[in-house]
């Protein structure tokens, strides 16, 4: 099959929560390529997914999902959207999942990157090509440089550099992809709760008087884990991230350029400008 024919075939989007699945679907449609959303029950937005070609499945229905993808003519697939790691008892295992149960159990023993890589290999073994946003819709990636009216000062850039060092250092432990640094101090690191929980924690610390710095200092830093499969689970940001950064009283956010997915970029920039915050893409 030629590359031209491959490029014209629909793309399967295994879709979790949030707005990213729909931003990716819209970008594919703009390219003239049809998205087929494999909507995961309990995660994907039912109202929004109704506007796209889609099918519903539970987490763990590997065989049924693969069969649906083949019926839809999808050979290229991607994983997109938020997904809280399910407990084993909540998985709805079908015939294929039962057959590969030892692989599933091994994958669940590691961090998020470990389990996602194991899941991707299951689909690759089924004959699918697993792609990432970088290959499918690079227009959704954060560009290099500052995209807002507000600009980071030298102290902000120093905090951002410190945050990058911290994220690189904790990468082998597959913990998180974000941290908050204020005036050189690492205040908190993202855990299983995600970025929203991290920012809410900073807000609580400030309200409790445990952060002595005045509002308007500090940076949220986001970057993928070192050695991470960049097809899977890139850091993401959007208008909701901006609201969290503003509520936490930070000066802005700095992310790895080309390695972070931006949902609703125009709305994100408008929200940041309204809040007087900076958003900057950092070169590797």
Keywords:
284 residues; alpha/beta; six-stranded mixed beta sheet; five-stranded parallel beta sheet; 13 strands; globular
- Give, in order, the helices and strands: HEHEHEHEHHHEHEHEEHEEHEEHE
Please list the strands of the largest sheet in the order they lie side by side: 6-13-11-9-7-8
- How many helices? The count is 12
What radius of gyration results from the CA coordinates?
19 Å
Q: Determine the structural class based on helices, strands and strand pairing.
A: alpha/beta
Strand content: 15-25%
Overall helicity: 25-40%
Shape: globular
pLDDT average, as an integer?
Answer: 88
The total strand number stands at 13
Tell me briefly what this model is.
This protein is an alpha/beta fold.
Topology:
Layout: H1 3-8, E1 11-15, H2 20-30, E2 35-40, H3 46-49, E3 54-57, H4 62-71, E4 76-80, H5 95-99, H6 101-108, H7 112-125, E5 129-130, H8 133-136, E6 145-146, H9 154-170, E7 178-182, E8 185-189, H10 195-207, E9 219-222, E10 236-237, H11 239-247, E11 252-256, E12 261-262, H12 265-275, E13 278-282
Parallel strand pairs: 1-2, 1-4, 2-3, 4-5, 9-11, 10-12, 11-13
Antiparallel strand pairs: 6-13, 7-8, 7-9
Helix pairs in contact: 6-7, 10-11, 11-12
What can you tell me about this protein's structure?
Helices cover 39% and strands 18% of the residues. The protein is built from twelve helices and 13 strands. α2 (20-30) links the parallel β1 and β2. The longest helix is centred in the middle third of the chain and has 17 residues, at 154-170. The radius of gyration is 19 Å and the shape is globular.
């Amino acid at each position: 099959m030629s590359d031209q024919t491959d490029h014209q075939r629909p793309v399967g989007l295994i879709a979790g929560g949030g707005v990213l699945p729909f931003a990716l679907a819209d970008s594919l449609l703009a390219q003239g390529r049809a998205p087929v959303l494999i909507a995961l029950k309990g995660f994907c937005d039912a109202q929004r997914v109704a506007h796209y070609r889609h099918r519903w499945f539970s987490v763990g229905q590997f065989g049924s999902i693969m069969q649906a993808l083949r019926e839809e003519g999808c050979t290229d697939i991607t994983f997109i959207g938020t997904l809280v790691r399910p407990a084993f008892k909540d998985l709805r295992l079908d015939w294929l999942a039962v057959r590969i149960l030892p692989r599933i159990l091994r994958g669940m023993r590691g961090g998020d990157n470990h389990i996602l890589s194991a899941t991707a290999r299951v689909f690759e073994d089924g004959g699918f090509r697993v792609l990432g946003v970088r290959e499918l819709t690079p227009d959704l990636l954060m560009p290099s440089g500052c995209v807002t009216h507000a600009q980071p000062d030298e102290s902000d850039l120093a905090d951002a550099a410190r945050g990058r060092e911290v994220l690189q250092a904790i990468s082998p432990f597959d913990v998180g992809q974000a941290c908050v640094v204020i005036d050189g101090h690492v205040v908190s690191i993202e855990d299983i709760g995600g970025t929203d929980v991290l920012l809410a924690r900073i807000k609580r610390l400030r309200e409790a008087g445990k952060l002595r710095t005045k509002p308007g200092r500090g940076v949220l830093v986001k970057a993928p884990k070192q050695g991470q499969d960049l097809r899977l689970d890139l850091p993401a940001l959007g208008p909701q991230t901006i609201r969290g950064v503003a509520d936490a009283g930070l000066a802005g956010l700095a992310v790895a350029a080309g390695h972070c997915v931006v949902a609703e970029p125009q709305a994100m920039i408008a929200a940041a400008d309204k809040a007087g915050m900076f958003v900057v893409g950092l070169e590797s």
